[in-house]
Task: structure prediction
Amino acid sequence: MADLTAGDLAPDFTLPRDGGGTVSLGEMRGSPVVLYFYPKDDTSGCTTEALAFTALADEFSKAGAKVIGLSPDAVKSHDKFVAKHGLSVILASDEEKSVLSAYGVWKEKSMYGRTYMGVERSTFLVDRDGRVAAVWRKVKVAGHAEAVLKSVQGL
Result:
């Protein structure tokens, strides 16, 4: 699938989430949604990113935006991650990797000369109409949540 760019319709989804129940992009239509894709619960970079979005949760809420983190980890892992770090963002579980694939973030990666499939840390800002407003790929965690917040505030 071609990479999503600004103006594209964001692929809809309904996924299981931390705390039980499901989260659906379509049900959030009318509000901006930040979808941040991350590789694995409770790893250094992913924890730093989740804590950064949690620290700005009130600001995202004031801007009317919802923040959803997506990874291939199971809901049980998400629940432990949330409890351990006091996270306030929604964490969706995509064990089937269908949403990761639809957004083009399930990619071949390489580390120490070994190739494997994994999540490319990426963020998508979806506008009130369900269209991609901005895309950040190969995200560097430092300062990222603040940059996304500025984009949300500019909608």
About this structure: The first helix runs from residue 44 to 55. The first strand starts at residue 14 and ends at 16. The mean pLDDT is 93. The CA atoms of residues 8 and 133 lie 8 Å apart.
